[in-house]
Design a protein that fits this description.
Layout (H helix, E strand, L loop, with lengths): L8 E3 L3 E4 L7 E3 L6 E3 L4 E3 H7 L6 H14 L6 H17 L2
Length: 96
């Protein structure tokens, strides 16, 4: 099991969660590779979903997200990963 932790996220046995002082936000490992299509083709749901939350630092989340895939032995499609974070950044920049 990974001991990955940054200033906002940590990988846990059950998945991924925020660290204090953030409010507790937990993601079960079964949700890490959930897909969504918001009109641009399939992408990972969590990066796009969390881009809607202004407290999330997307670069910190990205590092923890990748580590969570590795820690839980889940296949990470790098093309979907890039598309997901590109969409997340577009969404974030449109909401400013």
């Amino acid at each position: 099991m990974s001991n990955y932790k940054n200033s906002q996220w940590r990988v846990t046995k059950s998945g991924l969660e925020t660290v204090r002082p953030e409010a507790l936000y937990q993601v079960d490992k079964s949700q890490l590779d959930d897909l969504v299509d918001r009109g641009g083709g399939p992408m990972y749901d969590l990066p796009v979903h969390l881009a809607e939350k202004d407290w999330v630092d997307l670069s910190l989340f990205r590092s923890a997200y990748i580590s969570a895939f590795e820690a839980h032995g889940i296949y990470l499609n790098t093309e979907l990963l890039e598309a997901s974070f590109q969409a997340a950044k577009r969404l974030r920049s449109n909401s400013i």
